[in-house]
Amino acid sequence: MSAQTVKVGICGLGTVGSGTFNVLSRNSAEIAARARCAVEVVHVGARRDNPACELGNTRVSRDIFAVANDPEVQVLVELIGGTTVARELVETALRNGKHVVTANKALIAEFGNELFALAEEYGVTIRYEAAVAGGIPIIKALREGLAGNRIEWLAGIINGTGNFILSEMRDKGRDFADVLAEAQALGYAEADPTFDVEGIDAAHKLVILASLAFGMPLQFSSVFTEGITKLTTQDMEYAEQLGYRIKHLGIAKQTGGGVELRVHPTLIPEKRLIANVNGVKNAVLVEGDAVGPTMYYGAGAGAEPTASAVVADIVDLARALSGGQDCRVPSLGFDSHNLRDVRIVPMSEVVTPWYLRMVAEDKPGVLSRIATIFSDQGISIEALIQKAPAEGETLVPLIVLTNKAAQGSMDQAVAAIQALDSISSEVVRIRVESLDG
Fold it and tell me: Is residue 238 situated within a structural domain?
């Protein structure tokens, strides 16, 4: 039976919740035309009102579970965040036969396998476009637009806070702590910025993208994460001299040995489009065997950009409900009973070129010993920058760019270099990616 009006319940009236309500209200005519039915918010669950939106006569409950248990609600929108109460709320809604839309990347990344199975059991679906890259429709691109492709790899700037920090460090020569403080003052970073600067937020998003791209179960615990807290303006400057820029990327790649899942700072050629994505913007680059490289760029956060993605999922569900049909595409774009059991490639086997920065004594034989260590591990040097020592100084910065090497080999080389008496600092190393397909 088709629906004349699809009735929605929103749980959480913060930045994204209020943005979602406002977009649904402001664009109601366009949404109804595209969904082939009216979409009405009939129930809001929130601990307090938000002056950013006018709820009018919409029913409001301070207990969010009242929305999940409301028989009138057909689609529950979870925008409360976290993984404890949110998980219970979503499970309750699914068991009550309600479709769910969420922007909660941590919930999907950590508990998505169980939630998707529960949704199938009760004949409903979960949509989560807003969980990755805010307003960029990357989930739909992978589930639908690129469905005919074998995805080879994807790489994304998927945390706006980290990208803002690195952009400011490069463009203005500011140090990490200074820019982080500004990001917090501007509301880009939380009081505790760990999830953003240590790569956890990006890892949540990457595992979702990888599951969609490769038809594999969500495996958040398998993602390698490395943050940006140790990067310096020196690294930014030397990267530029070598023709690169440093970005904090999430990378998922199919190889002969399995799937790589990694989040870390990366040198990428300065001419690549993704190298020029600055500020709080997000971008995801996807390589498909048929289409080649495609890039998706836009606002990765914010009230209405994220609401745009939430509302797109609501419209998707409303179309299906108005037509009396099942939703068009499975949550992961694949039959969840036939997901691939893939090997996650250990980081010791991941092969990339490398950037290294160290401080060495300015005396004969130092470079020769370093070159010998690299040679012993089968690593060749592609480029070298050695600065002249300042007046009265005997130590100089030494920057090395290598050809491809497995991390295991590089680990051994770095350990041997740091053991040299002529090296007076920890060796900083950053992976390099060409991202050219």
Answer: yes
Residues 84 and 22 reside in one and the same domain? yes
The catalytically annotated residue of 98, 205, 253, 281 is: 205
**Residues in contact with 90: Cβ distance below 8 Å, sequence separation at least 6, in sequence order:** 76, 78, 100, 102, 107, 115, 126
CB contact set of 50 (below 8 Å; sequence gap of 6+): 13, 14, 17, 18
CATH number at residue 10: 3.40.50.720
Respond yes or no: is residue 247 known to be catalytic. Answer: no
Looking at the structure, tell me whether residues 41 and 120 fall in a common domain: yes
The first and second tokens of residue 7, run together, are: 């009735």
| Same domain (yes/no): 286, 186 | yes
CB-CB contact of 208 with 158 (8 Å): no
pTM (global) more than 0.90? yes
Average pLDDT over residues 100-121: 96
Task: Quickly list DSSP for 183-239.
Answer: HHHTTSS-SS-HHHHTSHHHHHHHHHHHHHHHT----GGG-EE--STT--HHHHHHH
Q: What is the DSSP letter of 130?
A: G
- Report the distance separating Cα 147 and Cα 159, nearest Å: 25
Question: Residues 226-282: pLDDT tens digits?
Answer: 999 999 999 999 999 999 999 999 999 999 999 999 999 999 999 999 999 999 999
Pick the residue with more confidence: 212 or 337? 212
CA-nearest of 140, 156, 203 to 331 is 140
Instruction: Read off the pLDDT band of 1 (50, 70, 90).
Output: very low
Buried/exposed code over 145-174 (b: 16+ C-beta within 10 A; e: otherwise): bbeebebbbbbbbbbbbbbbbbbbbbeeeb
The answer to the question of residue 179 being in a domain is yes
What total of structural domains would you count in the chain? 3
Element holding 429 (H helix, E strand): strand 428-432
* Residue at 162 is within a domain: yes
Structure tokens at 82: 């976290």
* Domain around 413: 347-432
Dihedral sign for Cα 70, 23, 317, 210, please.
negative
322-366 confidence digits (pLDDT tens): 876 555 566 666 666 678 889 999 999 999 999 999 999 988 899
C-alpha 166/C-alpha 230 separation (Å) is 11
Which pLDDT tens digit goes with each residue over 408-433?
999 999 999 999 999 988 999 999 99
Those residues with Cβ within 8 angstroms of residue 251's Cβ, 6 or more apart along the chain or in another chain: 153, 154, 155, 206, 260, 261, 262, 263, 264, 266, 433
| Pair (200, 318) in one structural domain | no
